[in-house]
Amino acid sequence: MKKGISLWIIICAVMGVVVFVVTQVIVPSLQNKTTVRLADGVFTTRVWYGERNIMRAMDDSRDLRLDQADLYVYDATDEWPVWVAGNGLRRDFVWLDSNKRVVYILKNAPSSEKPHKTYSPVEKAVYVLAVPGGAIDAKGLFVSKTAKFDLPEIVTEGK
Predict the structure, then answer these.
(1) 7 φ, ψ to 5°?
(2) pTM above 0.90, yes or no
(3) CATH code for the domain of 80
(4) Rounded distance between C-alpha atoms, residue 57 and residue 64, angstroms
(5) pLDDT recorded at residue 106
(6) Are 78 and 124 in contact (CB under 8 A)?
(7) CA trace torsion 112, 29, 73, 65 (10° rounding)
(8) Do 118 and 81 contact (CB within 8 A), yes or no?
(9) Rounded mean pLDDT of 82-103?
(10) Overall number of domains in the chain
(11) Measuring CA to CA, which residue among 68, 142, 159 is closest to residue 106?
(12) Residue with more model confidence, 135 or 3
C-alpha cells in the first residue's frame, strides 16, 4: 500500500515539474518577439497583433527594462489610442507609420485605474511602440526617425 502511495506522489511531482516547465519556459518562448532598432535604442520586443490582443496587453502592463518594449501592430492606419494600466508604471509611446517612421511621441504617460486615461496621437499610425518611461529621452528618439524591425510570423492566435 505504501509503495502505491509513494508512486502516486512521484507521478504527481513529475507532472508538477512538467506543468511548470511548459508554463514558465516553453510558452513564453513561443511569444511573438522581434528586435526593434530606433535611434540609439535596441529593444527586445514582444509583438501584439490585432486590437483585442493589444487591449489585453495594455490592460496587463508589465514592468519593462530600458532595453525592452511592446510593439502593437494594427490592421489599418488610424490614430490609435493607448493607456497604461494602474500599477504605478510610466510608459513612453512611439507611433510609427507604415514605413516605420516616427510620426508622434508621448513621454512618461502615467498609469491609471479603470476607466483608463487614454492618449491619442495627432497623426495616423500602423504601429505603436511602448517603452519604459524615460526611454525616449535616454535613447535620443524623435519624430521623423525610422525604426528597423522585422515582424515575426504569428505564433499564437491573434489576428
Answers:
(1) -65, -45
(2) no
(3) 2.60.120.1140
(4) 13
(5) 97
(6) yes
(7) 40
(8) yes
(9) 93
(10) 2
(11) 142
(12) 135
Nine-digit cell string for 23? 508554463
Whether 47 maps to a domain, the answer reads yes
CB atoms within 10 A of CB 102: 23
Torsion angle, alpha carbons of 56, 57, 61, 64, to 10: 170
Amino acid at 85: A
Residues 54 and 15 placed together within one structural domain of the fold: no
Cell 508538477 sits at which residue? 16
Question: What distance lies between CA 30 and its chain's CA centroid?
Answer: 14
Rg of the Cα atoms in the chain: 19
Query: Per-residue pLDDT for 59 more than 70?
Result: yes
Has residue 159 been placed in a domain? no
Cell of 37: 532598432
Write down the pLDDT at residue 117.
Answer: 92
Answer yes or no: do 71 and 4 share one domain.
no
> Of 16-30, 71-85, 90-104, where does mean pLDDT reach its minimum?
16-30
**Pairwise CA distance, residues 29 & 46, whole Å:** 11
Residue 158 in any domain: the answer is no
What three-state secondary structure class fits 12?
A: helix
Do 45 and 112 have their domain in common? yes
Quote the cell numbers at residue 146: 525610422
